[in-house]
Every structure is written in structure tokens, then in C-alpha cells.
Amino acid sequence: MNILITVDELCFTGHVYRKLTASNGRCQVLAAALISAALCLSLTSINTLRPLHLTLGYLGADDDQQSLPLTPETQSAPFGLNWPGPPHNATLLSQWADFLSLDYTQHPFDTDRLAPHLTTNEEVIWEIQRLHMQVMTSLLGGRRHVMLLDFSTSENKGDPAITVGEVALLRRLNVTVVFYCSIFMCSDAKLKEAHKISRNFAPSSLMILLHGGGNLVGYPESDILRKKILNLFPDFQSVLLSQSIWIRKDHEKHLNMCRELYSHRENLTIFLRDRQSLGLAQEHFPGTKLMLMPDMAFGLGRVPRTMPPTVDIVWIKRADDESSRYKVPEMPTNLSVQVEDWWKWTTNKGRTPMESSFLIAFNGLSFLQRGRVVITDRLHGHILSVLLGIPHVLIDNPPYFKLSSFRRTWTAGLSNTVLVTTGKEALEQAQQLLQRYESSLPSIMTYWKANY
Amino acid sequence: MNILITVDELCFTGHVYRKLTASNGRCQVLAAALISAALCLSLTSINTLRPLHLTLGYLGADDDQQSLPLTPETQSAPFGLNWPGPPHNATLLSQWADFLSLDYTQHPFDTDRLAPHLTTNEEVIWEIQRLHMQVMTSLLGGRRHVMLLDFSTSENKGDPAITVGEVALLRRLNVTVVFYCSIFMCSDAKLKEAHKISRNFAPSSLMILLHGGGNLVGYPESDILRKKILNLFPDFQSVLLSQSIWIRKDHEKHLNMCRELYSHRENLTIFLRDRQSLGLAQEHFPGTKLMLMPDMAFGLGRVPRTMPPTVDIVWIKRADDESSRYKVPEMPTNLSVQVEDWWKWTTNKGRTPMESSFLIAFNGLSFLQRGRVVITDRLHGHILSVLLGIPHVLIDNPPYFKLSSFRRTWTAGLSNTVLVTTGKEALEQAQQLLQRYESSLPSIMTYWKANY
């Protein structure tokens, strides 16, 4: 079994809220004193991980006498700092002990063996965050610096949520970002600047990270930018974070460019976020390291509902090329349903593109919380609903099948989530979810009858 | 001691999330069976209230076998459904037992005896919600129907937060809203409609509620609308919910109109939300029932931070007539500070004005969460920060003194909240708060150095 805890992480475990960039001498001394005990504890059995975490948390908190605690109720962690612990189910953990201790970089296509068997949102989030942490720690191989290129401030909500997940993971890995650019800011001039910065680092200390998403092959402009970036940093290890592949009809020419770009890239690892995309990558990108790895937005962790719902069903209906053009059925009069895409659910701008990403992701969470349950034809309508614990229905999108491939690979075990293919089925299933979870779903608080 | 628990409330206690309008026969039977035991328990001592609540919650949940629970982690209550229980401090509760069992409608100026002695956010919220529930139950006197008039969808965030608090309180009181209108929708035609609806009700079954806020006397258009409303429903008991009074220089003529409008109104009760406003009301509005009652936005309850902060300090600086025109000092280079009013932090529209109010209040919460700590010259920057548990500095606004009067009356005991009068002091105090709560404040997650 790999022991991945570093001194920094021990300190960090002690203070989820400690300012991440701050160093703390006393904490490091304490951590050094504790580390052998911690190693023993974590070796005894996998399910000691949670008590270990709690114990260190307590000791760490005591260590900092000059700083006052807020009351416990005020300490629920914001997203990105919310890391579910392993399941309390000892049988499950011992059953899967071998799998849990694998080095997945040596078993890159076996990462999804446990996830689809997990039945609660917390377990799925734990497993996916565990994979992210374990694999990235392994790939970083001791590097403490990265560049994060091509992230997104799109109002599609999904890409910014992925950005937040990536940033949260990097913070958790205690890695320094020495350069970043959002997709529209990765100009040639900025990339030149990035290249200049990279000269301060040896390949053994800097890694190039490319933003995940659903734009591999399917959105040529993204591949064209990645081509520039990959050719700019040939000597550095690069990771293209979790992506879906969409091969559109009549895009043979672009597919050929992608074949050339992504094949036989010795220093590149590509994460594919579902088995269908992995299959396509294996077919078209030979000679490059591929890994089956879940979507990065899970880095947000569990998010509590903050706002009471205002309708029974929020229905995300996308209107772009990825939609399967299903029909929305007539609604029963006893249901309040809000059908819209979240593109137009606009967000206030942050001071930097990265802050904007955080605000857009948060705004996506607010969009969904209006519904007691959710229907979605967007993948991140699914993923953010899993994070929020909102029961929901996914409508698949043939011929891309982005949603069903993802669900089959990672979230198939969640019983509060249903996959369908038509609008009619979606409505029926959403009504069943409303019934099944009636007693535990928050009620609609706004008054509707007097509609003034 | 008054026992205010009804059968409906017992059922509701069992399911914070039960759809509030739904009836449940089995629950009512169970509640009837439990009610005598509950009465005994709640009489034994005040601090049995919390265990009682928990016990009923558990029994209630078991009662509903056909409806599946979500996992516990997904059940944190959204705002408006988040009601802190009484403090665990038995000494405090027994010390204040006499005060806690008062009928405040008989002691309308004594409501603030406990609140300023409470030291945690949870305690203050509990006490204020308790006053709202107790007094409104008493004033409703068995009425189950209300009209809620003149509420707000203003981007000032405070008024919508008050609206949400009012709606949450009405839901908790299990009262039906038979008519509502937001300020811009309370046209003569709509009010005529409201008047028509009121004919279906006897004065003993319908109450008229006027939205709270900070616009009594200070904002003539609000008084003019209230004049219309009060003259339209002379036979019904009305409550003007918690307000501040601001008497502007050279507004003698409008003050005279207000004197005439609000004095000797037999069927009106006015809630004043601070002692200064109460004093002004006593001076200018003789012959009308006045009560010292805290701001309605506390109906939101405790709200967890959802988003990690992106700056050290968010500073709300208003630019309207209520500002004291203080100067913002130069910022130290090692601090990230965002200075702006939240007026321009715009919100997506809901399908109705009431839904818009909820969304704007939520958006106000998101504005504040960007800061590790907050500086505010707006009263609801203070109140929402108390609800979020964010340490903060209030800058007073002479000659109105809306903030200091409110703080002195209700929140003076909170040590994570500081009152100052200048921008320079505000910055110093905010820096001290950052230091004092360093270990328990969430860290900034966004990377700033690479600003692209």
C-alpha cells in the first residue's frame, strides 16, 4: 500500500481552514513527531483512515492557541474544502482492499472497478476524489509546481466547475501554480510569457496541466490551442485532465489532425472520463499514455443546499449541437416546472478569470437548488446534482452519449439518479423521485397562488 | 409559560423537509398521541426543548415508511428552514426563565433584555427567531390567513432578505398568504383586488402584514403606499413589520404626514427594530401599539458558507444618502480587499417577484462569502454576516445611526463583530479579525499571483 501523506498534508489535515500558503513551524515539528505513529496507524487497516484524520485534526487545532476558533456550526467547509472520508462500511473496505491499494498509473484502465458499485453520493465523491489524489500524486512524482492552461469562464457552468475542482485538487496536493490562463487569455503573447517562466524549472520540478472538459476532438478550437501548448513544452510532463471525446460526423479532417497531435506523445498523459471515450482514444491515439479518470468537478466535494427550492422540477435543456432534440412533454397542472438552459443564468464577473470560474460554478449550484428535483441533459447538471445531493434524472444525448457513458462508468450505483432517453420518461421519473423522497426533500417555501 | 406547539407544528418538527402544505393523516394521529407527553416534557424545564425536538424528529421520520430518506449529509436545511435550538447553557436558560416566558405583547419595550448578552451567532439567531415566533403567534390570535404587502425585489439585498425572513416565518407559523404584492406591483388595481379578496374573511381570521425595512419616514414613497393600504383595510388588524425610522433634515412636511398616518391607529401594531427608532415612534406616533422587535431577515437562520473566499476582505461601501461619506484608506499590499456596493451585484430574475426576492437574498450571501472577513456600512451586510458566521466590522452611519442602534439593541454581545465609525478603524479592526480567527477562517483557494 502506498503512503502518500506528506508533512505538508499532515499540517493541512490539522487545519482544513489554515491559509494554504502559510507555513507553520510548530505544525511541522508536531507533524514530524507524529508521522511515524501516523504511518503505523494507516498501515493497520484501511478503515483507520477516518479516525486518524480526526485525531490529527484535533491535535492540530490545539496547536494554534493564539488563534480563536469560531463556533463549530460556523465551520462547515466551503466547496473545494469538503472531502468526504471513506465509507463507514468496513466490509466494503476490506472487500476492496486490494483495489484500494493499487498504483493506478500501472493499471490505468481499471480505475472504475469500485465507483459504480457505490450507492451513496458521499461514497462516490470520496472514491473519485481518492482517485484524483492518488493518481496525481503519483504522476507529479515529487514536482511542486504546475502550469494550469486553458481553463474556462464559460457560462456553461460545467467548465468552470471543472476549473474549481482542478484548483481545489492542486491546493489539496499543496502544489504551486506558477502560471495560469483561461482559454481566451492563452494568447500567443501569454504563452510566450509562460514559456519564459518554464525556463526557471527543470522537467523534474514542473508539470503542465491542461484543463479537462468535454471538448476533445469535438471542439476543434480547443485542440488547436492544445497543439500550440504541447509543442511549446515538449520537455515537460503534461497531463490533459479528464476529457470526453466526441467524434462528429464529417469531421474526418480534424480527427486526422487530432490523431497526429495526440498519438505517440511520450511526455503526455490523457485522462478520459468515461469508457466510451477511452475506447476512442485507444483507437485513435496509439503510443500515448491513457488513463480512465473521472471528471475533475468532483473536487468541489459535497455541497449543502443553501436555498429552499422554488419549483418542483428544474429542467436543464440545452439548445446546442450536443442536444438530442428530444421533446418536452406537456406538464401536469399540479407540478411547477422550470425548463431552461443555464447558459442565460448569468454570473457577476470576478476580478480575475479564476475568480469568475468560482463564481460561475457557484451560480450553477444556485440554478439547480431552485428545484426539489432536477432533470438534466447536461453532464454537469448530473455531476453538480450529485454534489448537492439532489435526486435527478439524466437524459442521454445520442449520438454523443456523453451522459450515459459517464454514468455507466462512475455513478451507476446511485439510486437517487435515473437515466432515460426521452422527455416523457424524464418527467415520469422525476415525478417518481418527488414521491420517493417526499419526506426528505426540502419543501417549496415561496407562495405561488397569489402571483403578484 | 406559554405552550405554543400545535399539532401542525409537531408534525412539521418531525419533518423539517416535509412539504409544508401537505397534510399527513398518520402524522396527525401520532402527534395527537404524543402531545400530552410533549406538553409534560416541555413544561419540566426550558432546556428540554432541544431533546424534545430531536426525539419527535426521530419518531416522525420513522412514521413515513413509503418515503425514502436521503443520506443524513444531504439533509442540512436550506435557509428559512434552519432554526437553531436553544443554547445548551442550562444556567443561562434558568437565569432568564422569567424573561423567556413573558408575553411580550404585554411588555412590548422589553424584548431586547436577553439578546445583547448572547455571545454566539447561533444564540442570537435563536433568540431573535423565538421573539418573532412568540409575538406573531400572539398577535395572530388564531388567524390562519394573512396578506403580505409591499415586499421588495430591490438589489439592495437587505429588503429581499427581509422578505425571505418574513416568508419563512409565515411558513413556520403555518399561515396561508391569500394575497401578496411586491412594492412595484401594489398598484391601485391590485390593491382593489386585494380588497375584494379581504371580503371573504372576517377580521378575526385575516391579518394585514406590511413589509419591514429601513424606510419608515425616511423614504416618503413607502409611507404613501402604506397610507393607501392602511386606509383600505381599516377593520383588519395590521402589523408593520420591523422598521427603522430615519428623520431627514428639512422633511418636516413629510414627518407631519407620518404623524397623522401612524398615530392613534387602533388596529395597527408597528415593530421598531432598534431602541432609537422606538424612541422616535413613541415621540411621534402616540396612541398606536408599538413593539421593539428585531429585523425579519433573521428568519433565514444560520447559513453555511458554500464558496471558499477569494479575497481577504469584502468591503460593502454604499454610495447613497445613507452613507456617512467616510474615506477608504490606502490598502496594505499584503491584503486583497474588494471595495464595492452590492447594488451592482445583480441577480437573475425569478418567475415571480417572490422568487426574485429569494434569489437576490441568496446572491447577497454569495457576495459576502467572497471575503474571509467583511467590512460593511449596510445593516444587512451585518445581519447576513451574522447568519453566515463571517467575522465582520460595521461602520456606523451618522446622523441616521441605523447600524449602531441596531447593534446596541440586539447583537452587542457578538465578539466576532466590531463597530467603528471611520474607514481607517474599519481596516485595522478587519485585520485584527483576520489574525484572531486565522485558524478557523477558510483560506483563499483561488491563485492570485499569476493574474491571467
TrEMBL record, chains A, B:
Source superkingdom: Eukaryota
Domain called Polysaccharide pyruvyl transferase: residue spans: 156-397
UniProt cross-references to InterPro entries, sorted A to Z: Polysacch_pyruvyl_Trfase
Pfam hit, one: PS_pyruv_trans
Protein name, UniProt field: Polysaccharide pyruvyl transferase domain-containing protein
Organism: Pomacea canaliculata
